[in-house]
Amino acid sequence: MGLFDIFKHKNQSTSNEENKVDEQKTLTENEENNEELPESGKKETADSEIKPSDFNQPEKENDSVTPIVENNEKIDEIESQKNENQASYEEGLEKTRSSFGEKLKHLFANFRNVDEDFFDDLEDTLIESDVGVQTATQISDQLKEAVKLDNVKGHKEVQNFVIQKLVEIYDSPSNDENKLKENPDGPTVILFIGVNGAGKTTTIGKMAHKYQKQGKKVLLAAADTFRAGAIQQLDEWAKRDHVDIVKKSEGSDPASVVYDAVEKAKSDDYDILFIDTAGRLQNKVNLMKELAKMNKIITNKIPGAPQEVLLVIDATIGQNAMSQAKTFKEVADISGIVLTKLDGTAKGGIVIAIKNEIGIPVKYVGLGESVDDLQTFDPEKFVYGLFKGLVEE
Ligand SMILES: Nc1nc2c(ncn2[C@@H]2O[C@H](COP(=O)(O)OP(=O)(O)OP(=O)(O)O)[C@@H](O)[C@H]2O)c(=O)[nH]1
């Protein structure tokens, strides 16, 4: 099977499994609750054994049999939520998909020869979409090699080679790479860092909503004590999401907020604790010390925690996102990236650059300002989505 066929196959399977991202999401959510995903057949089966718990609803006492009509309504609700999420995912990536994809289409539509001019145009096209100079040059050099060694020269051959190289950057042996790690023995602790305005607080609000909806007991910690507004903003999210929060007044020691939050998370049996930090980069040494202090407190109370240190980056700042990621990598042990505001950029190539040049996986993408606009990042779907128009030609 040639690459073109692989792409066609991939696109087919994408349309066959239209809601793959959200099915995965639902599957993860159900796995997290140790529950089986309801099989589609159960919808029509009158004697099916669907339980309220299949749908992440708390089981009511004396309610062992749930009427089938009610179950069908729940299934419809889940289906409609899945479709809505799918639509928001597609919509959120539309700018990037059309612009990046169009540029590549234009490049290949004007293809004459695989010569120096083509290599220059290829690099320009990739750089314009924020794939980054390093990654663009790397792909161009790989193509030059393939031209020399494997006599790659035809239009389709060259096109497929470029696509394949972009796909390979995100080809991970483990599909679990972008899932959040959890603590099986107690509260899972997730620490958020990132510059002012990147979208940390909003991301925590969206994530808390997602976990709360799954029936998890969620606690927030307002350890960004630098600004009163930040504490207030997180407090508003806590109210909106109906989750608890540990907060202190502006200017308090962030480490003391973390201490109280970890204590509370442990003693009151919370499932997950999200910690909002100031994470400002103005003084790298201070930031490093502050994060080290927080980490020590967390690890002392909950060995193995924090399970994740997520760096929140605004996708609309283009190549500055790369320098931010590099600098934060020097001060913290980052386990994943949340790329926010991807809905606001036509240059989503930054997703490829971050993985290729920094080596940290993008785990979540922010695709809008509302509570449901946070999605698990599906690299395969993202990359294939970018080139959909090209490979269907
Ligand atoms: N369009 C869009 N806007 C977003 C997204 N995520 C966050 N925002 C907006 O970005 C702005 C900044 O987000 P915050 O969550 O306040 O950022 P922060 O990093 O917590 O900033 P500080 O609290 O100042 O440290 C807000 O207006 C959010 O609504 C996203 O995925 N898409």
From TrEMBL:
Record-linked InterPro entries: AAA+_ATPase (IPR003593), P-loop_NTPase (IPR027417), Signal_recog_particl_SRP54_hlx (IPR013822), SR_rcpt_FtsY (IPR004390), SRP/SRP_N (IPR036225), SRP54_GTPase_dom (IPR000897), SRP54_N_sf (IPR042101)
Locations listed in the record: Cell membrane; Cytoplasm
GO cellular component assignments: cytoplasm; plasma membrane
Gene3D superfamilies, sorted: P-loop containing nucleotide triphosphate hydrolases, Signal recognition particle SRP54, nucleotide-binding domain
Pfam families given in the database record: SRP54, SRP54_N
Binding positions for GTP per the UniProt entry: 194-201, 276-280, 340-343
Catalytic activity: GTP + H2O = GDP + phosphate + H(+)
Span list, region Disordered: 1-92
Annotated EC: 3.6.5.4
Example GO biological process: cell division
Topological relation to the membrane, as annotated: Peripheral membrane protein
Enzyme class of the recorded protein, top EC level: hydrolase
Biased composition (Basic and acidic residues): 17-28, 39-63, 71-82
Any coiled-coil regions, as ranges: none
Record key words, sorted: Cell cycle, Cell division, Cell membrane, Cytoplasm, GTP-binding, Hydrolase, Membrane, Nucleotide-binding, Receptor
Residue intervals of the SRP54-type proteins GTP-binding domain: 361-374
GO molecular function: GTP binding; GTPase activity; signal recognition particle binding
Subunit structure: Part of the signal recognition particle protein translocation system, which is composed of SRP and FtsY.
Family: Belongs to the GTP-binding SRP family. FtsY subfamily.
Protein task: Involved in targeting and insertion of nascent membrane proteins into the cytoplasmic membrane. Acts as a receptor for the complex formed by the signal recognition particle (SRP) and the ribosome-nascent chain (RNC).
UniProt-listed HAMAP family: FtsY (MF_00920)
NCBIfam families hit by this protein: ftsY
Protein name per the record: Signal recognition particle receptor FtsY
Record gene name: ftsY
